[in-house]
Amino acid sequence: MFARTERLLLRPAWPEDAAALASALADARVARMLARVPHPYTLDDAVARTLEPRAAHEPRFLIDSLEGGTPVLIGGIGIADRDGEGPQFHYWLTPAAWGCGYATEAGRAVIGMARHALPIDRLGAWHFADNPASGRVLRKLGFRPTGSVMQRPSLGRGGIADSVEYELDLGDQPELRIAA
Known about the structure:
Number of helices: 5
Order of helices and strands: EEHHHEEEHEHEE
Largest sheet: 5 strands, antiparallel
Number of strands: 8
Helix content: 25-40%
Structural class: alpha+beta
């Protein structure tokens, strides 16, 4: 499955992406905001990630920026149920892509797919408490805080950290706010 937005291409990861993926996820600032990305992140980690199986109801994409004319890997986004919590929306971006609106743009595309093509009616999401920018993105996409804070492991941090929990009812019409 692929998706194209005004500035982005969302596409599957292929083994040929391993070097670019390893470079993007090797940044400690990225790894520490994710649960399953170790630091340091190696080429072997990236190859394994490109080969991970995914269920039909779990779309996962790399995000390429198309703004320079040549696609450049700037992140990843998707929906997965990895810990029995139900479908969870997740994303990450390289630091050079932070603050450009890419996460919101890609998120709109993925949530649109979920609403219209997946057999799910609710999405969960979360961010580490020390990453409020991620919470702003989730709120722009229509997610609502549940009021719950959980402790989650982070391989990049080498420990546990507080996470803020969100949910989105896919039956609701999207309330994508300009600023949050």
